[in-house]
Amino acid sequence: MPPETRRELVVLFVTGLLFWTNITALLPTIPLYIRTLGATEAQIGIVMGAFAIGLLLTRPRLGKVADLRSRVLVLRIGVIVAIIAPLLYLAASSVTLLFFVRVFHGVSIAAFTTAYSTLVTDISPANRRGETIGYMSLVTPLALGFGPAMGSTISAQYGFPPLFICSTILGILSFGLALRVHEAPHVRAHRAPSCPS
């Protein structure tokens, strides 16, 4: 594998690891946070499930944007949403507002996963594509391995505001690396001139 390809994949991998840690740190804690606003068990389930609404409504359109304009643009959109959403959780003062924040937060997964998987496929050498995709897909289970524990520890010891701030910081770090991710030259070459990457 050429050194420049390896570097590109490493940057993308760490971008993904930071993004997924941002997401998974909130998994065990968001239901507890919703409860602090007086939500019932049923309402907690509804608010948690609202995440899927944003994901399902935007993923097809974001996939089209990734094809016609830029995979990297869509990747960065996903990270930006992941930066903003934790701060919106902190600002939400009702269960209803949290519902809409969850819908918005779902866009992060829709954008990031679409762009990440496509970028990995584009960048990977053809003769090692399956192997590379296998390695690059480890970002999610790795983040699941320590993200929830980290989030639970922070919220238990310091409260929810520091947790949401830490999540946002992880998103900012991910975005900093996302600025160094580039599309594969052959993808840029085949894209329409009117739709720059």
The largest sheet, given as strand count, sense and whether it forms a barrel, is: none
Low-pLDDT stretches: 192-197
CATH overall fold name: Growth Hormone, Chain: A
Straight-line distance between termini: 24 Å
SS elements, strand count: 0
Tally of individual helices = 9
- Could you state the order of secondary-structure elements as H and E? HHHHHHHHH
Task: Please give the share of residues in helix.
Answer: over 70%
Gyration radius, in Å: 18 Å
The total tally of domains equals: 1
The shape, in one word, is globular
What CATH architecture do you see? Up-down Bundle
Relative strand content: under 5%
Helix/strand/pairing class, anyone? Answer: mainly alpha
Mean pLDDT: 91
User: What's the CATH C level?
Assistant: Mainly Alpha
Structure overview:
The protein is mainly α and 197 residues long. The protein has a single domain (3-184), classed as Growth Hormone, Chain: A (Up-down Bundle), CATH 1.20.1250.20. The protein is 81% helix and 0% strand. The chain contains nine helices and no strands. The protein has helices at 3-24, 30-36, 41-68, 71-91, 95-123, 129-136, 139-158, 160-178, 185-190. Helix 1 runs antiparallel to helix 5, helix 1 runs parallel beside helix 7 (139-158) and helix 3 runs antiparallel to helix 4 (71-91). The longest helix is centred in the middle third of the chain and has 29 residues, at 95-123. The radius of gyration is 18 Å and the shape is globular. The chain starts with a helix and ends in a 7-residue tail after the last helix.
